[in-house]
Amino acid sequence: MAARKKTAKKKTTKTASKAATGKTGRRAANSAQDKAARVAAINAAKDDVTIQQIREAATDVHKHIMKKAKPDLSFPVRSLKNVSYSTKRGYFEIGKQKKVRTLTVNTVKSFAQTLRMMGLSKELVETNDFATKRDAYYQSKNWEDAKFDEQSESDTVMDDIEALFSTRGTSREQLRFVPDEHGGAVAGQLVVLDPDRETGEVERIDCTRFGSGAYSIPSTVEHLSFETDAKFILAIETGGVFQRLQSHKFWQTSNCILVSLAGVPTRATRRFIRKLSDECKIPVYAFVDCDPYGISNIYRTLKVGSGNAAHLSQFFCVPQARYLGVTPQDIVDYDLPTHPLLDVDIKRAKDALKNDPFFKSHKSWQKAIEQLLKMGVRAEQQALAKWGLNYVIEEYLPRKLDQRANFLP
Amino acid sequence: MAARKKTAKKKTTKTASKAATGKTGRRAANSAQDKAARVAAINAAKDDVTIQQIREAATDVHKHIMKKAKPDLSFPVRSLKNVSYSTKRGYFEIGKQKKVRTLTVNTVKSFAQTLRMMGLSKELVETNDFATKRDAYYQSKNWEDAKFDEQSESDTVMDDIEALFSTRGTSREQLRFVPDEHGGAVAGQLVVLDPDRETGEVERIDCTRFGSGAYSIPSTVEHLSFETDAKFILAIETGGVFQRLQSHKFWQTSNCILVSLAGVPTRATRRFIRKLSDECKIPVYAFVDCDPYGISNIYRTLKVGSGNAAHLSQFFCVPQARYLGVTPQDIVDYDLPTHPLLDVDIKRAKDALKNDPFFKSHKSWQKAIEQLLKMGVRAEQQALAKWGLNYVIEEYLPRKLDQRANFLP
After folding, report:
1. Residue B195 in contact with partner chain A when CB distance is under 8 A
2. pLDDT per residue over B304-345, tens digit each?
3. What element of type H or E holds B330?
4. How near does any CA of chain A get to the CA of B330, in Å?
5. A75 to A218, B43, B254: CA distances (angstroms)
6. What pTM, to 2 d.p., does this model score?
């Protein structure tokens, strides 16, 4: 902790010397430095809380043992049955059901492993490092009797710990457990502020300056802050459409930020969008294929989270997201080429109508999904290319963006 | 074409005004401008050739028709049986077998579609735009009788056209057919020069300046050029290891460029590594899991290409790549935690030994794979975390890099 706080103080912006040739430059640099310092201070405070929470949980176990009582740890049950959808908060929430792990002869190993894993987390926070699930599994190979035999075991323990601390408002990323996957790609009217993990020096990453390439989101984003005047974030399902919008600088003409989801968005991508939207108060519009997968997997996961990881929703979902398209009505209005719905599509759509608390609480979504089922077809976002490769840029998106009130919730 | 050539002339570097405050800055900016102009000139010349080739193929068809003869188009056969491995060139090559499509009553539709697809390509080159396979499929929906009913049909026609022109040294990207997938992530001692597609203005993208994030490779890279003093390119299988090396700035201490493969590398990633390595004359080292998938799918595809797309190998494979690890011998030397080989692993390894021309022509690889089969285990690159999360940075990679002569071919 001491190390982190110290670095926060010597924080400077790398681009400052270059940019600070005019008043505007100096102001921008100062503001970047201030912003990053504020985020660093918030994170340092959060780190203190995280360590405190780990200490408390461990102290409680220790006290029980000292009193010769059986210690226990209680975790929220992670299953669809222990999930509720709060229309007010706008995301899936984990319920109150708990499972209790008491230290007995039979549970001694997994109990010890849980404590070691909490110890690893504490160490990672203290050294400002991170571990993936795989890293943690292999780390355990040096824990002698407490080592895991299979990664599935260590994954479960990690998930339990996350669920435990999530009920205290602490996310997986604050515990320094990060995903193994890539973040998505970003381009447009955005400057990302990223302080160096050792020196605290702030890198200003200008997402208008990537040419035809893009900014790749790191696997954890808690330390980032942002500067932007963009009017909205456009979250795009396919790499092809993202590349078209990026190459033709759609972000410039529309003053927006493009994010490539590349299918169901990774945790880092979701968290990045959420953080960016929250901190800069900009709306998020989703642009995905018009099929039950695009609607009920990609969009629903982005917006309200997923059922079996509801303990993460409070950090990762983007409840402010709205659905720009492609909508079932667009198939009619734009006379789009379609494919017939497959059995798996029909099953997914019916499931959504019947079982998904999100769709069940939004009439307009029920109507849209029923319309899709009735038409018996699906359409990809690239189907707009029927009218010309750049029709999406020149016609479809501008027209849609003129009628934002009509976006599905 | 006129448009492209014109833009090449007014080419400037965006960062020039900022950077050109000292002699070095001015020199760097000039050199960036020169380099990008050189690449633009080469590409413009290639575009001329591409259009010429399309014209010739079409003119030939036209001439036959005028003479009232049946026109035909002949394509290389795209199958494993028509592939050879050239140890000298170092990649899979497509053989001499051809299939001929003659215009008859039965083939009239696919013949027409092939010509329209070639026409689309010509149009894309002329407008400096691009299309994915999906884009092309949907574009065809306005081709009246020549429209495709299924994307699989348009994909086949596109593949045929690519194979046809590949025998004349023209790549899919030169035809402006680009993949729908993301490129990988890049960080380290590299400046990417990316000229704007409309103004020709050059963006200098400094890959040391992304904080914990990274540069995301665009779906086509032909227009890029590079500035680097890096000693090598490290191609990394997993996002987790890439993030660790990036966050801890391994590229700085080792003066290298990190590229995340994220599994079997996409076409854009392979082409990016190849182009970068060729143009800047820097070696490529692969760092992947020690299992038959990592060796015979990820590494082999990166290095020599894949059997069923051999017509692309000349552009996409990286014959100069060498295998840093994880090697079967590393499992012994570093006492790594392992998993038993699954049946599918054993099958894949035996297939490689028996049928793969690449492994068949390298004794050291045969020995390594046989060793793996004998041990009956596999190890992930993150298994090194057993010795500490940053052991890979502090011990493993430096030790390996001291013995580059021992890298597997």
Report:
1. yes
2. 987 767 777 888 899 999 999 999 999 999 999 999 999 999
3. helix B328-333
4. 16
5. 29, 60, 44
6. 0.88
